[in-house]
Specification:
- This protein is an alpha/beta fold.
- The protein is built from 12 helices and 6 strands.
- A 6-stranded mixed beta sheet has the order 1-3-2-4-5-6.
- Helix 4 packs across helix 7 and helix 8 runs antiparallel to helix 10.
């Protein structure tokens, strides 16, 4: 199967647009190089732990610094997601006696990456960290797994949205990557129904379970009716809780403007883009092909 096409995006910032265009070009023309390099990353367990966020680390402008991750997260996301999907398909076909394929899902900030990246995955052919709140997309993944003769297992990691938000702040301080409140709300609100529909569509062919992560050191298995217990409200209700918690967090700590902008779904400001441009220059080897224009460092005045 050919590599999926990469959905192109438009950015007001010239620098962000060029990083996006370069990422798309390189993945379209050199996907095998990215996939080889991915297997060598220690946190991927020889390529068996699959995550678009992990693939982003292979894009030099993005991985250059925390400031760069803040600015270039969105520009490289679609290219990284296509690479993750391709790695998933390749691992389904790999020569391996292990029959179980684990899908890990949950609100951003719940702790999915911390729980599985770089860990012992001996029981699974692969672990795919992927949002399953869109039933149509989730259904495609489960069907691909079943068609490969394998057993899909879904683990939903759940916590209060307020805890997830605080975790995204900690992640931003460590890595430069936060999360949009609206995206967090959509994912958490959509998961119960999407997972319920998957269970109804594939009775006795899919195993869906969940854990509470309100204490990351002592995760608790969810018992009883999983789908009702992970319901945290509508998109509007969850987003309202996140907005309120962001205000509380802002009174308790000095929040970075770049983090607040990410929370509200706003593009980085011009200063952040200029700062990231310094790292883009340092990683100029990213633009190796003559067909790719060299990254220009100026930032426009828009956000």
């Amino acid at each position: 199967m050919a590599l999926e096409s990469i959905e192109s995006r438009s950015f007001e910032s010239l620098l962000r647009q060029e990083v996006h265009d370069q990422a798309c070009w390189e993945v379209a023309h050199e996907s095998d190089r990215f996939l080889r390099d991915y297997v060598l990353l220690p946190e991927t367990s020889q390529g068996r732990y699959i995550s678009a966020d992990a693939f982003k680390e292979l894009f030099l402008p993005y991985a250059a610094s925390k400031a760069a991750r803040n600015v270039f997260n969105a520009p490289v996301h679609n290219a990284a997601a296509v690479l993750a999907a391709e790695q998933f398909r390749r691992m389904l076909k790999a020569s391996d006696d292990r029959m179980h394929v684990l899908f890990v899902t949950g609100i951003p900030g719940v702790g999915k990456t911390s729980a599985f990246a770089g860990r012992d995955l001996a029981d699974y052919r692969l672990v795919y960290e992927r949002q399953l709140s869109d039933f149509v997309e989730a259904d495609k993944l489960i069907l691909e797994t079943l068609d490969a003769g394998l057993i899909p297992v879904v683990l939903v990691m759940d916590c209060e949205p307020e805890r997830a938000l605080r975790n995204t702040w900690a992640r931003f301080k460590a890595e430069g990557r936060g999360a949009s409140l609206n995206a967090m709300a959509k994912i958490q609100a959509g998961l119960p129904d999407a997972l319920y529909d998957l269970a109804a569509r594939y009775p006795r062919r899919i195993n869906i379970s969940g854990i509470y992560m309100n204490d990351e050191h002592m995760p608790e298995l969810i018992t009883g009716d999983l789908f009702s217990q992970i319901k945290r409200g509508t998109i509007h209700e969850i987003e309202s809780r996140l907005i309120a918690e962001l205000a509380v967090l802002g009174r308790q700590q000095k929040l970075a403007d770049a983090y607040i902008r990410q929370c509200h779904g706003h593009a980085p400001n011009s200063r952040s883009i200029r700062d990231a441009g310094k790292y883009a220059r340092a990683s100029a080897g990213f633009a190796r092909q003559a067909e790719i224009p060299a990254i220009r460092i100026e930032a426009d005045s828009s956000c």
